[in-house]
């Protein structure tokens, strides 16, 4: 009798064992396919995080390598400031998607009636800005713009203030404030239009936020104005200690941050002994770490499920083959070669897989999304693809053949007479 027919007849006769293996393969394959779909969704999310979260680095004056001098306001560093040409050259490096710079101004603000703004604590800490969305305060997540727009290079006198400051003074988008750097010395008054309002997300008392160069100012009193407005406030002041002290550069692909910085440090026109570079990728690192941990967990679960399943299948097949010693001995005794007998066992198992694998593919399309939500994925983003099915079918088929071979070792190493002599 043809071994293929024998395999079909045996599977039908031993339908309980056949169903057991079928449902086991169906469950295993469904879980593995779902796991692969979740892993792919995880990778896509990681790619999206790299693109949307991004990262930045800050170039700032290295005061430790500069000298010190005295002026009307006390001692100040004579270290060189960051020039606009230097900013433009750094911004031209491949991988940098945007930039901003800080010209720090401690001006006073007055409303349209000439009244000083009400604040919780005295003193404003203002950033003269080219593109405020790339300022470290926003990139780090400490501030979040909630109304209006960010300052851009084409704005002459734009101003962004905190929600607290707006509420205390009844201010809104479109209102005009007058800034004066040093009223007692009759420095220029600059009118600025409020174009944006930000909320304070960070805790000022958090140790992470206590050691910047403005730690003694209240976050509510932070403002961001157009670079042109900041320069106008300082016009004629003549203080040699006023200039751009920090510049921020946004890298669209956070994974490339280190390589971009390496390229920046190769710019020969910049004396890097006079400047420090610090990375600002806390948000990306935190999210990336969480995604990596989840990815490792998913991979581990797939491996564990596959390993445990292989052990179960080998046990089931081993018990089945041992229970067929008489049949095996007779087949060998009538001249059927051992490879042919083993091939029959392989065909019996693969016949079950041929039905179980496609059904698992269909069921995993329904199950994968639900399982994906347990790992924080959107169900619609967890998709089982034909590529997943082909991978599982090929690898699964190979593993099943290996399981049959392992299960057959104890029986097939005996001769027909030995097998029959062990039967009762």
Automatic annotation (TrEMBL):
Domain ABC3 transporter permease C-terminal: 301-414
Descriptive protein name: FtsX-like permease family protein
Segments traversing the membrane: 297-317, 329-362, 389-409
Subcellular location: Cell membrane
Membrane topology: Multi-pass membrane protein
UniProtKB keywords: Cell membrane, Membrane, Transmembrane, Transmembrane helix
Entry-linked InterPro entries: ABC3_permease_C (IPR003838), Macrolide_Exporter_MacB (IPR050250)
Keyword Plastid on entry: no
Coarse class of the protein's main subcellular location: membrane
One Pfam family matching this protein: FtsX
């Amino acid at each position: 009798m043809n071994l293929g027919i024998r395999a079909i007849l045996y599977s039908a006769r031993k339908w309980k064992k056949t169903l057991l293996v079928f449902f086991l393969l169906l469950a295993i394959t469904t879980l593995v396919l779902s796991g692969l779909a979740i892993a792919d969704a995880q990778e896509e999310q990681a790619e999206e995080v790299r693109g949307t979260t991004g990262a930045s680095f800050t170039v700032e004056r290295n005061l430790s390598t500069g000298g010190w001098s005295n002026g009307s306001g006390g001692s100040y560093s004579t270290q060189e400031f960051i020039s606009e040409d230097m900013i433009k050259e750094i911004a031209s490096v491949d991988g940098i998607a945007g930039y901003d710079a800080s010209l720090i101004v401690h001006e006073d603000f007055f409303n349209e009636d000439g009244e000083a703004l009400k604040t919780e604590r005295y003193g404003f800490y203002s950033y003269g800005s080219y593109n405020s969305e790339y300022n470290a305060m926003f990139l780090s997540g400490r501030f979040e713009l909630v109304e209006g727009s960010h300052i851009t290079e084409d704005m002459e006198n734009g101003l962004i203030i905190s929600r607290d400051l707006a509420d205390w003074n009844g201010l809104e988008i479109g209102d005009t404030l007058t800034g004066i750097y040093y009223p007692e010395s009759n420095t220029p008054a600059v009118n600025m239009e409020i174009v944006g309002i930000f909320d304070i997300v960070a805790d000022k008392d958090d140790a992470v936020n206590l050691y910047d160069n403005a730690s003694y100012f209240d976050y509510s009193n932070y403002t961001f104005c157009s670079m042109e407005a900041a320069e106008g406030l300082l016009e004629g002041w003549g203080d040699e200690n006023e200039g751009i002290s920090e510049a921020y550069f946004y890298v669209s692909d956070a994974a490339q941050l280190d390589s971009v910085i390496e390229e920046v440090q190769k710019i020969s026109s910049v004396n890097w002994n006079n400047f420090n570079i610090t990375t600002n990728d806390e948000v990306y690192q935190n999210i990336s770490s969480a995604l990596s941990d989840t990815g490792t967990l998913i991979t581990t679960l797939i491996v564990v499920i596959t390993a445990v399943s292989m052990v179960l299948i080998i046990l089931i097949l081993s018990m089945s083959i041992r229970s067929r010693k008489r049949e095996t001995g007779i087949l060998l005794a009538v001249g059927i070669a051992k490879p042919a007998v083993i091939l029959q066992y392989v065909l019996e198992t693969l016949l079950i897989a041929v039905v179980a694998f496609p059904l698992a593919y269909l069921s995993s399309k329904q199950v994968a999304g639900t399982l994906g939500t347990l790992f924080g994925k959107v169900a619609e983003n967890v998709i089982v693809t034909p590529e997943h099915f082909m991978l599982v079918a090929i690898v699964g088929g190979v593993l099943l053949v290996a399981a049959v071979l392992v299960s057959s070792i104890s029986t097939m190493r005996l001769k027909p007479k030995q097998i029959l002599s062990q039967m009762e």
